[in-house]
Amino acid sequence: MNDKELFTLIEAEASRQLQHLELIASENYVSKDVLKAQGSILTNKYAEGYPGKRYYGGCEFIDQIESLAIDRATKLFGCAFANVQPHSGTEANLAAYNAVLKPGDKILAMSLSSGGHLSHGTNLSLSGKIYQTYFYDVNPQTEILDYDALEKMALEIVPQLLIVGASAYSRLIDYQRCKEIAVKCGAVLLVDMAHVAGLIAAKVIPSCFPYADIVTSTTHKTLRGPRGGLILTNDPLLNAKINKSVFPGIQGGPLMHVIAAKAVCFKEAMSEGFINYQKQVIKNARVLSEKFQELGYRIISGKTENHLFMIDVFAKFNMTGKRAEELLESVGITVNKNSIPHDLNKPNLTSGIRIGTPYLTTLGFKEETMEEIALLIDEVLKGNDASFKAPLLISRVQEIIRNNVLKSE
Ligand SMILES: *Cc1c(COP(=O)(O)O)cnc(C)c1O
User: Fold this and answer.
1) Is the whole-model pTM more than 0.90?
2) Distance, CA 408 to ligand 1 centroid (Å)?
3) Residue 294 C-alpha to ligand 1 middle, in angstroms?
């Protein structure tokens, strides 16, 4: 290593990752094969275009790698076509919009405070500047998607694109109903499964196929692959539009090292072990959320049916999500502040925190530890001195990472 300055920082981050209880719902801990593929010499190769149709020579093996990734993605999700080139979830979305919309067209998407994502046409995103976006909310009482209200809104607005899928929504989505609504108003249905892709791949929650026209995703959340994006469809015409839209529409050369790592991740996701992992992710989230309820916390929408949930810390302690996040960080527990439906606090303060179990489940944590974690978080938020207990759990995290993950390299 010649660049000491930089590699010292990577080591510092590696040790930070060993010293925290990671409860951020969108993060995970990848396998050494994923790391190896992503850190490989494939980064040296330019490969603009698609397998068999490149703008550069020397793509013999690159073509086989991308085709392998595509075949595995379609097999994993049970669909006909995949584009594995988007650099991120946001770019997958932008490419999908660009494939089916003209500037000024209308998008109907879930609001940020109900759990939607910035890239779904919000005004901070390029998508919000190019397209005209309307937002639907969850029902204020149940905090669950209200499909009748959504249908009413869709028929009034008549959007060209209906987006479902969220970053902070703990309930299952009725994709069939969403498709019916899209058909009634003549919209393309885009399902952004970024958060739940791993759960869908393992078939532990219902799939968005065959209902979605286009499916976008990240590969680095519950799917436990490299940081990147993915677009799927069953429609050959849409597929052709999507491919043109990704390249040359919004991207240049593909990140072949990342695509190789995606191929590894899709293969891993077909294994028995991955299915058991996702079952445990859901079990852990349920047990953790139920323990919080037992301790008197309000869980947004009353329960979780996936890998994450939001807690209303403002209702319990008159404390903002931001403050809760800081208090927990101070003892080595990482969560993120999160707006809750119809939040009275600003987005930079929020009333909630979001908690997810994918990362700790990858490290092998089971239900018993979830109960310990809930008790620990409760003590920290109540202002009790938890500085003795947190290091105990964290040292177990460190031990597990050292034994299972790092040593096997
Ligand atoms: C995370 C997420 C994205 C964006 O992914 P990036 O790779 O960070 O751009 C898009 N949509 C949803 C629903 C997400 O949760």
Assistant:
1) yes
2) 30
3) 32
